[in-house]
Amino acid sequence: MGLRSYPKEYFELMLVGFTLIMGMSLSSAFLPIFAHELDPSGLLVGFVISAWSFSRIFTELPSGILADRFGRRRLLVGGLALSALGALLCSMAYSVYLLIIGRTFWGLGTALFFMSSTALLFDLFKSNVRGRALGTFQGIEFIGSLIGAPMGSFLVAIMDYRGVFSLAFVSILCSFLIAFFSKGLRQTDAQESKGSEISLGKLLPSLKSWSLATVYIYSFSRMLIMRGLNDAVFPLYLNLELGIRIELIGLIISLRTAGAIFATVTSGHLSDRFGRKPMIVLGLLMQSSCYYAYTIFSSLEMFLLFGLFEGFSRGMSMTSAMVLLSEIVPSRLRAGGIGIYRTFMDIGGFFGPLFFVTLFDRGATTPFLSALAILALNTVLLSTVKSKREVSPV
Q1: Cα-Cα-Cα-Cα dihedral of 353, 355, 359, 361, to 10°?
Q2: For residue 116, what are the CA distances in angstroms to 19, 62, 169, 216, 218?
Q3: What are the CB-based long-range contacts (under 8 Å, 24+) for 81-84?
Q4: Is 330 helix (H, G, I), strand (E, B) or coil?
Q5: Cα distance between residue 369 and residue 294, in whole Å
Q6: Backbone dihedral region for residue 243 (phi beyond 0: left; psi -120 to 50: alpha; all else: beta)
Q7: 3-class SS of residue 94
């Protein structure tokens, strides 16, 4: 099944996701540094990153149930509106507390978008091509991050931090307008809304499934590390410990994103052919190697190289895990299952910055070594997962 045969709604979602992610990524190189300048308290710096996930913890699962019952589009458009509001508040932040509030709205909005868009993708494609469809979609989203991270880091010198957040608001507003006026997404929403009577009581028993519980633990751990180590500690480590400038940090992050782009596309095809677990386990092993390398090298060149490999490893495991989830959860509970998955992810995203920033205060390399232990545990657990792939024509 080639790209030309994909429905046009798929490409509209791609465009919306691209502009949203680009706006999100504009601040990725300097956000913890900006928060540190507003208030040097390590705990508040952690809360700036954690705020992204706080409100999502309480909304992912209900939004998944609502998407199964009423359709995806309304939640998707509403999420984009909240994301734009969050970016606007961040652009006016002269207090760390307003920055936290803006990040809270922004995170809530992206939660609604990602849950709805993922459910739509799973509705549009059968299991035997779902990996490549999701991988290509995420690859295009990551291109937005590839552009946004270095652009934001260089624009700081021209526009200052708040000016970059204003630019992010404009980018996300474009996403909202595209989704709001899309006839294709409106029609898809009408076709896929079947009014299923899915409830929380029907979804919670899925936690008793060993395979699902293991995937949920991976979801928690992945975001614990991503938000805590990658987003909160890594820029501080590069800037405060190694003296690397913000614009160069943006370059490292962009190369990490480039690796993720390549991985999400290629691993989607490979997981369709060879299975999900081999891709996940290989990705976790590669990611562990990169985190260890960060603790023994200090040159910019080595960080650029290992940043590329780290992004590749994360993209490889992330895409395959999402498709693995879709093969474990019954189709009638799919959006709700995604909601549970993302709830665990958001819990990890909330506690990750607080946990890893605290570890960073005790030793610069301690967060990286702790991440190695967490990844090792997940590698063992995920190797035991069993799934049943759908066999259906393209």
Answers
A1: 60
A2: 16, 12, 21, 18, 21
A3: 81/109, 81/176, 82/106, 82/108, 82/109, 82/112, 83/20, 83/23, 83/24, 83/109, 83/110, 83/113, 83/172, 83/175, 83/176, 84/109, 84/169, 84/172, 84/173, 84/175, 84/176
A4: coil
A5: 10
A6: left
A7: coil
Taking every pair of Cα atoms in the chain, the longest distance, rounded to a whole number of angstroms, is 57
pTM, rounded to two decimals = 0.70
What do you get for the CA distance between the two ends of the chain, in Å? 7
Closest CA to 229 of 357, 348, 374: 357
pLDDT in tens, 148-204: 888 998 898 888 899 999 999 999 999 999 888 887 777 665 555 444 445 555 555
| Cα 364 to the center of its chain, rounded Å | 25
pLDDT in tens, 220-260: 999 999 989 998 899 989 988 899 988 889 889 888 888 88
Spatial CA neighbour of 112 closest among 138, 73, 145: 73
* CA gap 238, 294 in Å, rounded: 10
Residue 279 token pair: 């891709």
CA atoms within 13 A on the CB side of 1: 19
In angstroms, the CA 164 to CA 154 distance is 10
- What sign has the CA pseudo-torsion 137, 138, 139, 145? positive
How many angstroms separate the Cα of 159 from the Cα of each of 24, 88, 167, 173? 17, 15, 9, 19
Locate 185 and state its tokens. Answer: 């997404």
The CA distance from 276 to 41, in Å, is: 42
Q: Structural domains in the chain?
A: 9-382 (1.20.1250.20)
